[in-house]
Amino acid sequence: MAAFRARVAAAAADAETPYAVRGTARGFELTVDVHSRPPQTHTYRVELRPDERVFTLTDVVRVRDRFQRSVSVGRNVYVVTAVRPDGSGRYRFSSADGHRLIRGVAGELGWREEKPAVLRAARVAGVIGAVVALGTLVALAVVFLGRA
Hints:
The protein is α+β, with helices and mostly antiparallel strands. Helices cover 40% and strands 35% of the residues. The chain crosses the membrane at residues 124-145.
């Protein structure tokens, strides 16, 4: 576990994006403040199961507006392009860069990724919704074709 976190910290130090790595009880978090309007913090939460050499990667995006705050948990892929806070040029942040950084280290160390529970639950809900929609369409077809 410590080796994985240390390798991610080393890779993050070499990246253009100013990531911060913090250890947690079940893994670590890779965090970056995204200079956007409204400002937000993107955290890549990595949970490790060392016995199985499996990790889960979850995005936690906290948006801070003047009047409200929101948190999004799941898998978020987006790009922000803005002027740097000091006005010295363009700033670009892609959430996919953090995903690639973590997955690259995981691949080098022989770890495999497992989707977080929230994504698996969303997939199940999507399949159930599709089945219900298909059933509704079949029922409507039977009703309308039966009248003809």
